[in-house]
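Q: Structure tokens for this one, please.
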Amino acid sequence: MDLGISAKRAAVAAGSAGLGFGSAAALAAEGARVAICGRDGARVRDAAEQIGHGCVPLVADVGTAAGATAFVDAARDALGGIDILVPNAGGPPTGNFATTPVDAYPAALELNLMSIVAMCKAAVPDMQERGWGRVVAITSFSVRQPVPNLILSNTARAGATGFLKTLAREVAKDGVTVNSVQPGVHATDRIAQIYGGDMAAVTASIPAGFLGDPADFGQVVAFLCSEHARFVTGVHLPVDGGSIAGLL
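A: Here is the predicted structure, written as tokens:
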């Protein structure tokens, strides 16, 4: 299926590894011109080389609103504009209510909420002006079913989902769709860190019976960026192998 995004310009945050890398690779394979970022220059350059298709590597830390805005500005300069934005960032430290101090929350909110707000503020107005745009944020299935010992992530990503849903309704008339994809357990370094490398036990808890593949995840992101998905907005799509137990 031709997704209709050949030559569209895509900025994928934290695209040097994991789900960001999978998303950037899928978009580039569809003919989009892609810019990715990461904090480690050598790592992000290597990732861009693996993605190919002229992928542009940028060194940026999207863990703060200022860093997130700087990435969007750099991507716009490199690509000549941004048609597709994939907000993404790493996760905050693990911990529960008892072990997490109050002063740990602002940094988590900056990382997984304010960075998304800042990237959208920097990229979406131009999309509105052109009458076409796609925002597909990578969040977490914890928005629907909070994950034990991840209270900071659960809190920040829930806020991000509320922001994205509100934004989607405000810009839909301008030809801009805003969605998020909520990954469950995928084969990434972050998941290995959270679960201490005991992936067999984690895999056994997934109804599908296997870990998610970042490349498959990227294909879902690419579809939501496509012309075919132009009537899909305000959606927060779980990609979790059936892990979420809720009806909605």
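A few notes: Residues 105-130 form the longest helix (26 residues). The radius of gyration is 17 Å.
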